[in-house]
Amino acid sequence: MNQQAFEVLGFYKILEEIESYAKTNLAKETIRKLRPLQDKRKMEQSIKEIEEAMKIIEISSSVPIHTLDEMSIYLSQAKKGIYIRADQFPFVISFLEHCTKLKQFMRDKEYAAPNVSLYVQSIPDVSELTEEIARCIRHSNVDDYASSDLAYLRRQLSILTDRVKEKASQLVKSKKYASYLQDKIVSERNGHLTLSVKREYRTKIQGSVLDTSASGATVFIEPIELADMQAEIETMKLAEESEVERILYELTEKLLAEEEAINLAIETMHYYDVLFAKAKYSRVIAAKPPFLSEDYTIYLKEARHPMLGDKAVPLTLSFGEEHRALVITGPNTGGKTVTLKTIGLLTMMAQSGLLIPAKAGSKIAIFQHIFVDIGDGQSIEQNLSTFSSRLVNIIDILRTTNDRSLVLLDELGSGTDPGEGMALAIVILEQLYQKGATLFATTHYSEMKEFADQTEGFLNGTMEFDINTLRPTYKLLLGQSGRSQAFEIASKLGLHPKLIEKAHQITYKTYRNFHHDQNLKELDFQQQIVVNKYARKSVEKKTVNPTPSREPIFEKGDNVILTETDEMGIVYQGPDVQGRYIVQVRQEKRTMNQKRLKLYIKGTELYPEDYDFDIIFKSKEYRKINKQQKRKHVEDVWLEEE
User: Fold this and answer.
1) What is the model's pTM?
2) Domain 545-630 belongs to what topology?
3) Is 441 within 8 Å of 374 (Cβ atoms)?
4) What is the sign of the dihedral through the CA atoms of 188, 194, 197 and 202?
5) Which CATH superfamily is domain 291-484 in?
6) Which tens digits make up the pLDDT trace of 29-41?
7) What is the CATH topology of the domain spanning 146-235?
8) Of 509, 488, 506, 507, residue with least CA distance to 497
9) pLDDT digits over 296-318, tens only?
10) Which of 91, 121, 212, 605 has the fewest C-beta atoms lying within 10 Å of its C-beta?
């Protein structure tokens, strides 16, 4: 499955949501890499395990998962011969304790999750190691009683330190130094006890100057009487540090000896973290386990797009038993695109071993490929138009699609000339169907609806529209094609029925009666017609033909019916001296006698007074060149009248 499909359908956003429920960075990374599978057995196993995990969460939402982040680093550090520091061991203790807690937690939930609880058996018993580390480490420091030697050294250090302090206190109070001292206090400098001596008397006291005050008036001297005792303390501290390092190395070696057990515990903890993140997300979106089919049948029962939350309108769809292609029509913003995305995204989720937001009993087909052409996809870098960029994507889909592909196409053929776009859309659908793909396509083209009605394997569907509220219901109806509802909306909003009936006849070549809403005043309709008639009469008075060759029956822009063929055309020029008019019929200009023409709708009723008829009668290229010539003369360019 390609990157574009994941992005367009919002699969990565689903993974981000699931990832937010994971505790460890390792689990978050695993979730980010989650992709659809092809193996039905693995999908079903994953779905079943998530179901069991959800049952566990219902009993107790507090699952003892550790953050894990540092354990692998500590093991790697230990293998390099670097001991784990005392301030790092509390994390190790916490991890080991969580292993024990998780084992007990899962054993207690075995009745609710018989399969998921089995994984905890892979965590070895690490209680002895936990107790040993906890005995030696207290408050991020090596405990005094971690070894008998350390206990002895620290007791001796405490005794010597007390003696030094007592001696320093005696010196401060002695008459021998009283006149030399700046302050009668003992100060500590660089770990040594010193006396605050006036600068001018610094030679009167034997010892080492360790510091000077900011003003320079005071020097801090370690008296010779304290130096020997301090040296003994330093020696004792070195011995203490050496013993602490020995204990840390010993604890690190014991941890390293259990490397295999710890790695197993990390893997198991990581597995549970990923699993419970999926389960927690499934609970939030009220997801249920789907059945998985390999016969490409899809049954969605009140399925919802997971990113829409409470705003999602449930989608019920049964498809694939008799048809392999569905053409969906309906008004804009009616939910066609959301329907496509829901089908595609839920398929991706199920194939990734996830539960889906749909009622129990829903069924998802397993596909090898999911291809998507939805949205703009415009490429600025390649200077491609919307139509071109989408066509490049569709060409790639045609090249790669097989009978195990799900193809989702939104507004196929849009962005270009309607006639050509419709024709391309039909041949593309036909070719994809012949390749065996399962197809879902949305369209506005009525010809595509007719194609789907008449082609075996194709089915029409429409998004329901509530004409009473003028709002789409976002519900998919199979077996029928929809319209844009423009005429119904116009009637509901108060456009004169006569105008709507004419518009309907132009579009569908058949008459249909439209009744106005009784809540609207009759005067509203009369004003529409009166205003239009008055404007038409005003234009007629202003139009003067000083030398008419013949009194005109028809005017430029009038819609006329060719009585012999029952075709409809638009008057372009005329009449000439023989009473003939040039009429455009389906982009072709024909010369017709006025007797063979019958007025259908006056052009003044269809077009504003200053309407540019070149839009109808001239090609786009002709209008472009004509516009350039009007601005300035363009050399070597001749404009041939069309």
Assistant:
1) 0.70
2) SH3 type barrels. (2.30.30)
3) no
4) negative
5) P-loop containing nucleotide triphosphate hydrolases (3.40.50.300)
6) 999 999 999 999 9
7) MutS, DNA mismatch repair protein; Chain A, domain 3 (1.10.1420)
8) 488
9) 999 999 999 999 888 888 899 99
10) 121
